[in-house]
Amino acid sequence: MSGCTNCKGKSGCDDRKGPMIASIEETIERLYPTRVWGEATDVPMYGSAGDPDLLDALTEELGQELNAATFAVRGNDDETCDYIYILCVGRTPCIMQMRDHQVALAPHADVGDAPVLEMYLRVVISHRANICAVQQVAMELIASDDGYLVRESPRAGVYDPPLLKRMQKLVAILPAYELMHVDFGEIAHSPPGFTAGTWTDRYGGKPSIANFFFYPQPTTMVTTTLLSPAHA
Question: With 0-12 CB in 10 A as exposed, 13-18 as middle and 19+ as buried, what is 230?
Fold first, then answer.
């Protein structure tokens, strides 16, 4: 695991965090004048919602610059964001292609007693402001009696060394698309002075800043999809 304490770039990062945190605070105040989750003010659509071609263009450039398979995913009806998944540990055809695009898994991925494990960077791009954040995501493919289970497990940030080099390159590309990157660690907690609204009834606890900007579900919520043998 990697963290801020021993990072050689910590001093430069600290200099950048002040303006970033100020921007986060200004943006959430502007979007939620009532300070209640679920009561966002009407704003023009930003990011890939304001420019439908942005998601595909950024996905393509990230694939080229990071030398990795990349996949664009539009947010569903209750998510005010879109996603880009970047395969960092694993080979194509990969689990995500199997789950989302009905592509047969590669022969090298023999699903026996041990699950197949892949690691991704997941870029989440807000529709409400020109901001984005990046999470580390694990995908597991598990054989079951009814077919296959695909388990997606996001973390509140990026930690593992194999992902960090691509993460640095990724962040350097974002300004060309007028996207401000915010460290996920700075938006994974509940914003002071804001209330949960209906969020607590749905999920329990309190929403994080990320829930105000991007999607309603908890930031590290694990999702599991069942695929039939025919699908696989």
Answer: exposed
